[in-house]
Amino acid sequence: MDSLKNKFNNFKQKPMLVYGMGCLILFAISFLFTYYFRVIYLADWLNQINGTIGIFIALAVMWTVFYFSSKFKNKNLFMTLLLFALGAAFCFATPPNQVPDEQSHFLRAHAMAQGQLGFDENHCYPNDVNLLMKYFPIMYNNGYPAREGATIYNRFTDYKRAVYNGEKAENISIIIFQVIPYIPGAIGIFIARAIGFGALGAYYANRLANLVFFCICAYWTLKFSGKFRIIMFTLMAMPLTVFIYASCNTDSILFRLMFLMFSTIFSEKFDNLKATIFTLCFAVLCVHKMSYIVFLPLFLCVNKENWKVKIKNKKIGKIVYLFITIVVFLVLYKGMNFYVQLFSNYGDIVRPIIDSNPAEQLKFILRYPLRYSVVFLNTLKNNSFFLFSGGLLGWLDIKLPLINYLTPLVIVFSVVKQSDVFDKKDINKTLMFFVCSILTYGVVMTGLYLSWTPVTLPQIIGLQMRYMCPAFLGFCMIIGQYFSKRTAKNITNTDYSCICTSYIFTILTVALMLIAYYLPERAVAFVA
Question: Can you tell me the distance from the alpha carbon of 97 to that of 509, in angstroms, rounded to the nearest whole number?
């Protein structure tokens, strides 16, 4: 046994041999995958050799990024590069407009790139943009696997033909009154258009710009998080999270600010820099999604010895800092409202949900609180507490049951592996994050019951797992704190096992998503 262990250790000391062995294994996997596709999907167009080489190149790129970046002494940079690689894979694997709200968010960013920083109801987009929206409609597959002649590949060919033939498309109008979350995407679109790319190139430039900004924030998130950085990486590398942050959806911006805000609480000292980041992130988050208001008390759990916030070299208390944070939020909130009133030509906005009335719904809740409690709990039950929807990607097009079940397991695996990082000093943070998590569920669900659900309907509609992502860190903290007292101390470093598990799991998700979008199933009997 010792000799085998010594041989393995000697093998690890030869970097290029390890890299080459990994490539060899990936080549074998690529061969088997290609044969699987040819048998299950009857892909006559897929040559065994060409298919193997194509899949191998894709896997080899991901393996190369992992292997060589793992040699960096700066492990935060290593994990950031992995997040970028995963984001790039999702960026190009996810078809246009298949991330929720992506259509309208891209159009808003494109309008800003055209110089429209206000809100013009009659803003005109270039014809190729309107064609892109026409040939990549939302909810394209509508919950069904790709069908012969109706795959995403056909969407691309139809769009390319329409642009080439000079087809005209109707201009689209959107209703969005926000600016800040669209700035990175607008910059990406502006650069793409200036270089000479068309609408499709500008679309992917929007995604890439959001991805780059996320990774910049992710690096500082990991750096500030200290001993909790692996748990933060696991949450940021979760398939649903990557799916969002590598898209045109502005939740990509909000997610990166959310993780950055959380990381300031984990830092060794909460100084002026961390306090400024927390305040600005909190203000921007709450202006665009009021549900983040529940995280305002987070800074109260910072230990007294770690509190280093000063004004003119004089330490200030948490109450004063709370007041400053609220003032910054109110100034930004009122400022944005004034900006919208000043630069908007929209008239009365018709509510998108028939029979929804926030005032009447609130009266119903206050009058029948017990009944609403039953509705609340029943909605949680019907949606499995929004913990097993990590494989529901896109406008109901992609339902990956395997990813649904494995997502919480992969997260719990990493948290349990990292349970050693928790100690008694973290109990206050754990409890505060957990309380904020519970409040997130309450605020999000009640908010959608008021704004999107018809009055008295016994089910809350409009809910998605991504709305609950801010709550997951609190659950991780509770699990980690629990297992820290009930598991043996790890002798070996578990960081790489957690990172590798998350990385492979998300790559698997990309592969399954590509199959669902591009490979139509055809039930034909085998003839010998």
Answer: 18
Confidence category of residue 468, pLDDT binned at 50, 70, 90? very high
Mean pLDDT lowest among 20-29, 83-92, 178-187, 481-490 = 481-490
Q: Write the DSSP assignment of 82-141 as a string of letters.
A: HHHHHHHHHHHHSPTT-STTHHHHHHHHHHHHTT--SB-TTPPPPHHHHHHHHHS-TTSS
Q: 310: part of which helix (H) or strand (E)?
A: strand 310-311
Q: How confident is the model at residue 348 (pLDDT cuts 50, 70, 90)?
A: confident
pTM beyond cutoff 0.70: yes
Task: Indicate the residue type of 259.
Answer: F
Residues paired with residue 311 on neighbouring β-strands, in sequence order: 314
What 3-state DSSP class applies to 173?
Answer: coil
Q: Convert 462-506 into a string of H (helix), E (strand) and C (coil).
A: CCCHHHHHHHHHHHHHHHHHHHHCCCCCCCCCCHHHHHHHHHHHH
- Residue pair 99/324 in contact by the 8 Å Cβ criterion: no
Joined tokens for residue 82: 């992995």
B/e letters for 203-226, b = 16+ CB within 10 Å, e = fewer, are bbbbbbbbbebbbebbbbbbbbbe
- Buried-exposed string 173-201: b where 16+ CB fall within 10 A, e elsewhere: eeebbebbbbbbbbbbbbebbeeeebbbe
Position 521 confidence tier, pLDDT thresholds 50, 70, 90:
low
The residue whose two tokens read 């609220």 is 326
Does residue 468 contact residue 440 with C-beta atoms inside 8 Å? yes
Residue 462 has, within 13 A of its CA and on its CB side, a CA count of 17
Residue 395's pLDDT is 60
Q: Which two tokens stand for residue 6?
A: 């010594």
Contact indicator for 349, 175 with CB cutoff of 8 Å: yes
Give residue 200's region: left, alpha or beta (phi > 0; psi -120 to 50). Answer: alpha
Tally of CA atoms within 13 A in the half-sphere of 352 that contains its CB: 7
Number of CB atoms found within 10 A of residue 487's CB:
12
Residue listed under structure tokens 């959310």? 258
Q: What is the largest distance, in Å, between two alpha-carbon atoms of the chain?
A: 85
Contact 273, 236 (CB under 8 A): no
pLDDT for 280 equals: 97
Burial of 478 (0-12, 13-18, 19+ CB in 10 A): middle
DSSP for 348-410?
A: PPPPSSTT--HHHHHHHHHH-HHHHHHHHHHHHHHTGGGSS-TTEETTTTEE-HHHHHHHHHH
Burial class, 157, CB count within 10 angstroms (exposed 0-12 / middle 13-18 / buried 19+) = exposed
Residues with Cβ within 8 Å of 162's Cβ and at least 6 positions away in sequence, in order, are 131, 134, 135, 169
